[in-house]
Predict the 3D structure of the following.
Amino acid sequence: MKKIASSRTITAVCLPVLVILLSIMLVLVVSDCGSTQDESHLMDRALIDTVAQPAPLVNAGAAVGSGAVLNAASLPFEVGAKLVFAANSTGSPARVDFDLEGPWDLTRGPSALTLTMAPVDKSDAPHADRFPDATMVVRSSWKPALVEDKYIFQDLDAESWLSYGNAGADRLVVFSQPSHALIFPAAVGDRWVDIYQQTEDGRVTDIRAENRIVAYNTLEVPAGRFDAFLLQTRVTATSDNDSVSTWDYVWLVPGIGRAAEIVSLPGEKDEVFGKAFSVYRLQDYNA
């Protein structure tokens, strides 16, 4: 990927969907309760015509609101790491209460399902040969096991967090070009527009994702209290001349990764809403 000098404008093509949903994120991206909950929505998006304001290079551990930056080194993806989320039931919208500034208290919420995301060896993933450029794979699995495990094919370097698609034993989703979940260094105020195509079972869906890092503040989830970046993505999926849009919010914690995610109902017009299609809250981790 080429870095474009001072303006940080880049061109690429983007990531998964969360509601096209039904179906993804990504991831990131971003899901996995049978195409109806795509936790990779945050992780699976690629960039085109990305525009972001330059950000100062400071430690991500700086005080809240001080211009903290998220770097690739802040996202652990070693085999053995694990994130465990409490999630709402499939087809059961959940009430949510959040804003775009923070601090955010997500300690209470739905917990009917458990989502576990963990890096695995690429050789253990189905259809790995379809993603030759992916250097890491994250497996997502549900309890109760309502759907098969999903394997998200990714890459992480000093410049970006990439995704190439995802697969299961009976499912294969391929992106036309590598997608970008984040561009590094990432800071509040960064913006980019992602445009990509995803193909599943011969069906092609066009995605437009308008991304913005809106805040850095304190987040509380069942797993604890952390300083977190809030990434907002407005996703529009178009297939067979029909379009549907959703809002996806992902909280990213340096040293852990994703700590929470809220996805709107399809067709939601307001960026802050009270009822969500999907809610994921970190309840345990081993980073």
